[in-house]
Amino acid sequence: MKLLLIDLDGTIRYGTDNPKGFVNNPTQQAIFPDAAKQLQSYYDRGWQIIGISNQGGIEKGYVSLDAVLQGMRQTINLAPQIYDIYFCPSFTPPGTEVYRCGYRSDTGAWGSLRVNLQNYPVRCGYRKPEPGMLLMAIEDCVCRPSEVLYVGDRPEDEQAAAAANIPFMWAENWRAGTDDYRDISAETLYLRLEDDL
Ligand SMILES: [Mg+2]
Protein backbone atom coordinates (compact mmCIF):
# COMPACT_ATOMS: atom_id res chain seq x y z
CA MET A 1 0.00 0.00 0.00
CA LYS A 2 1.17 3.51 -0.85
CA LEU A 3 0.26 6.64 1.09
CA LEU A 4 -0.36 10.06 -0.45
CA LEU A 5 -0.43 12.81 2.18
CA ILE A 6 -1.82 16.01 0.80
CA ASP A 7 -2.23 19.60 1.94
CA LEU A 8 -5.70 21.04 1.25
CA ASP A 9 -5.87 24.84 0.86
CA GLY A 10 -4.06 26.01 -2.26
CA THR A 11 -3.07 22.43 -3.12
CA ILE A 12 -6.32 20.68 -3.95
CA ARG A 13 -9.04 23.14 -2.89
CA TYR A 14 -9.70 26.88 -2.81
CA GLY A 15 -12.33 29.19 -1.36
CA THR A 16 -14.57 30.43 -4.15
CA ASP A 17 -15.40 33.54 -2.07
CA ASN A 18 -11.83 34.32 -1.05
CA PRO A 19 -9.18 35.76 -3.35
CA LYS A 20 -6.40 34.36 -1.10
CA GLY A 21 -7.73 30.86 -1.63
CA PHE A 22 -8.38 29.78 1.96
CA VAL A 23 -11.69 28.08 2.61
CA ASN A 24 -13.61 30.22 5.11
CA ASN A 25 -17.14 29.12 4.34
CA PRO A 26 -17.74 25.34 4.18
CA THR A 27 -19.95 25.56 1.11
CA GLN A 28 -17.85 28.13 -0.77
CA GLN A 29 -15.07 25.84 -1.93
CA ALA A 30 -13.99 24.03 -5.07
CA ILE A 31 -11.40 21.45 -6.06
CA PHE A 32 -8.83 22.50 -8.69
CA PRO A 33 -9.80 20.46 -11.79
CA ASP A 34 -6.21 19.23 -12.32
CA ALA A 35 -6.05 18.21 -8.64
CA ALA A 36 -9.26 16.18 -9.04
CA LYS A 37 -7.66 14.42 -11.99
CA GLN A 38 -4.51 13.61 -10.02
CA LEU A 39 -6.47 12.41 -6.97
CA GLN A 40 -8.34 9.99 -9.21
CA SER A 41 -5.11 8.84 -10.85
CA TYR A 42 -3.43 8.10 -7.48
CA TYR A 43 -6.60 6.48 -6.17
CA ASP A 44 -6.83 4.24 -9.25
CA ARG A 45 -3.20 3.21 -8.72
CA GLY A 46 -4.00 2.06 -5.18
CA TRP A 47 -2.67 4.94 -3.09
CA GLN A 48 -4.47 5.73 0.17
CA ILE A 49 -5.03 9.49 0.30
CA ILE A 50 -5.02 11.51 3.53
CA GLY A 51 -5.51 15.29 3.82
CA ILE A 52 -3.18 17.23 6.17
CA SER A 53 -4.20 20.78 7.03
CA ASN A 54 -3.25 23.62 9.37
CA GLN A 55 -6.42 25.31 10.62
CA GLY A 56 -4.96 27.94 12.94
CA GLY A 57 -7.97 30.15 12.19
CA ILE A 58 -9.77 28.14 14.87
CA GLU A 59 -7.38 29.21 17.64
CA LYS A 60 -7.35 32.74 16.26
CA GLY A 61 -11.15 32.85 16.41
CA TYR A 62 -11.56 33.53 12.67
CA VAL A 63 -13.54 30.35 12.12
CA SER A 64 -15.34 27.87 14.37
CA LEU A 65 -14.33 24.25 14.81
CA ASP A 66 -17.78 23.27 13.58
CA ALA A 67 -17.43 25.28 10.37
CA VAL A 68 -14.02 23.70 9.69
CA LEU A 69 -15.48 20.22 10.21
CA GLN A 70 -18.34 21.03 7.84
CA GLY A 71 -15.81 22.29 5.32
CA MET A 72 -13.77 19.08 5.61
CA ARG A 73 -16.89 17.00 5.07
CA GLN A 74 -17.69 19.04 1.98
CA THR A 75 -14.10 18.59 0.74
CA ILE A 76 -14.39 14.79 1.00
CA ASN A 77 -17.79 14.96 -0.70
CA LEU A 78 -16.16 16.87 -3.56
CA ALA A 79 -13.04 14.68 -3.57
CA PRO A 80 -14.20 11.24 -2.38
CA GLN A 81 -10.77 9.75 -3.15
CA ILE A 82 -9.68 11.27 0.19
CA TYR A 83 -9.98 8.69 2.93
CA ASP A 84 -9.46 10.88 5.99
CA ILE A 85 -8.36 14.39 6.91
CA TYR A 86 -6.14 15.45 9.82
CA PHE A 87 -6.06 19.08 10.86
CA CYS A 88 -4.36 21.10 13.56
CA PRO A 89 -6.54 23.88 15.04
CA SER A 90 -3.57 25.53 16.77
CA PHE A 91 -2.18 28.82 15.54
CA THR A 92 0.58 29.03 18.13
CA PRO A 93 3.54 26.79 17.28
CA PRO A 94 4.30 23.99 17.73
CA GLY A 95 0.60 22.94 17.72
CA THR A 96 -0.71 20.67 20.42
CA GLU A 97 -4.07 19.45 19.10
CA VAL A 98 -5.19 17.36 16.14
CA TYR A 99 -8.62 16.43 14.79
CA ARG A 100 -9.29 13.57 12.43
CA CYS A 101 -12.41 13.28 10.29
CA GLY A 102 -13.80 11.20 7.45
CA TYR A 103 -16.42 8.69 6.45
CA ARG A 104 -16.00 5.41 8.33
CA SER A 105 -15.03 2.64 5.99
CA ASP A 106 -17.23 0.08 7.78
CA THR A 107 -20.51 2.01 8.08
CA GLY A 108 -20.09 4.89 5.67
CA ALA A 109 -21.10 7.28 8.48
CA TRP A 110 -19.37 10.66 8.87
CA GLY A 111 -17.26 10.93 11.98
CA SER A 112 -14.75 13.24 13.61
CA LEU A 113 -12.68 13.05 16.75
CA ARG A 114 -10.10 15.00 18.70
CA VAL A 115 -7.11 12.70 18.58
CA ASN A 116 -5.83 11.46 21.91
CA LEU A 117 -2.20 12.49 21.62
CA GLN A 118 -1.26 10.20 24.52
CA ASN A 119 -1.35 7.42 21.91
CA TYR A 120 1.35 9.17 19.85
CA PRO A 121 4.58 9.67 21.71
CA VAL A 122 5.82 11.96 18.95
CA ARG A 123 8.46 14.37 20.22
CA CYS A 124 7.40 17.26 18.03
CA GLY A 125 4.48 19.56 17.39
CA TYR A 126 1.56 19.14 15.04
CA ARG A 127 1.18 22.47 13.31
CA LYS A 128 3.18 22.42 10.06
CA PRO A 129 6.17 22.98 9.64
CA GLU A 130 6.26 20.55 12.58
CA PRO A 131 5.97 17.01 11.19
CA GLY A 132 3.54 15.60 13.81
CA MET A 133 0.48 15.20 11.57
CA LEU A 134 2.52 13.50 8.84
CA LEU A 135 4.09 11.05 11.31
CA MET A 136 0.67 10.39 12.87
CA ALA A 137 -0.98 9.59 9.52
CA ILE A 138 1.81 7.12 8.69
CA GLU A 139 1.58 5.56 12.15
CA ASP A 140 -2.21 5.15 11.78
CA CYS A 141 -1.92 3.04 8.61
CA VAL A 142 -3.09 -0.50 9.21
CA CYS A 143 -0.04 -1.77 7.36
CA ARG A 144 3.14 0.15 6.87
CA PRO A 145 3.09 1.86 3.48
CA SER A 146 5.74 0.88 0.95
CA GLU A 147 5.88 4.43 -0.30
CA VAL A 148 4.89 7.83 1.11
CA LEU A 149 4.64 11.21 -0.61
CA TYR A 150 3.61 14.59 0.78
CA VAL A 151 2.30 17.30 -1.55
CA GLY A 152 1.86 20.94 -0.51
CA ASP A 153 2.02 24.53 -1.73
CA ARG A 154 3.90 26.39 1.01
CA PRO A 155 7.37 26.41 2.56
CA GLU A 156 5.98 25.00 5.83
CA ASP A 157 4.74 21.97 3.87
CA GLU A 158 8.19 21.36 2.44
CA GLN A 159 9.74 21.85 5.91
CA ALA A 160 7.29 19.41 7.52
CA ALA A 161 8.14 16.74 4.93
CA ALA A 162 11.85 17.34 5.47
CA ALA A 163 11.41 17.09 9.26
CA ALA A 164 9.52 13.80 8.83
CA ASN A 165 12.15 12.71 6.27
CA ILE A 166 9.56 11.85 3.65
CA PRO A 167 9.54 12.78 -0.05
CA PHE A 168 7.87 16.07 -0.96
CA MET A 169 6.40 17.45 -4.16
CA TRP A 170 5.21 21.00 -4.84
CA ALA A 171 1.46 21.19 -5.52
CA GLU A 172 1.97 22.88 -8.88
CA ASN A 173 4.17 20.04 -10.16
CA TRP A 174 1.91 17.36 -8.72
CA ARG A 175 -1.18 18.88 -10.33
CA ALA A 176 0.68 19.04 -13.64
CA GLY A 177 1.15 15.29 -13.45
CA THR A 178 4.85 15.17 -12.54
CA ASP A 179 5.79 11.88 -10.96
CA ASP A 180 9.36 12.90 -10.27
CA TYR A 181 10.19 13.25 -6.58
CA ARG A 182 13.03 12.36 -4.29
CA ASP A 183 12.30 8.80 -3.35
CA ILE A 184 13.78 7.23 -0.27
CA SER A 185 13.70 3.60 0.61
CA ALA A 186 11.00 2.36 2.97
CA GLU A 187 13.76 1.02 5.20
CA THR A 188 15.32 4.46 5.64
CA LEU A 189 11.91 5.96 6.32
CA TYR A 190 11.01 3.52 9.07
CA LEU A 191 14.40 3.73 10.76
CA ARG A 192 13.80 7.45 10.95
CA LEU A 193 10.21 7.05 12.17
CA GLU A 194 11.26 4.71 14.93
CA ASP A 195 13.76 7.35 16.05
CA ASP A 196 11.03 9.96 16.22
CA LEU A 197 8.09 8.03 17.63
MG1 LIG B 1 -1.75 25.09 1.49
From TrEMBL:
Coiled coil ranges (UniProt) are none
Q: Does the keyword Ion transport apply?
A: no
Taxonomic superkingdom: Bacteria
Listed InterPro entries: HAD-like_sf, HAD-SF_hydro_IIIA, HAD_2, HAD_sf, Heptose_bisP_phosphatase
For the biological process aspect of GO, one term held by this record is: carbohydrate metabolic process
Gene Ontology molecular function, alphabetical:
kinase activity; phosphatase activity
Any idea which UniProt keywords this protein has? Kinase, Transferase
This protein's name:
Polynucleotide kinase 3 phosphatase central region
Q: Which organism is it from?
A: Leptolyngbya boryana NIES-2135
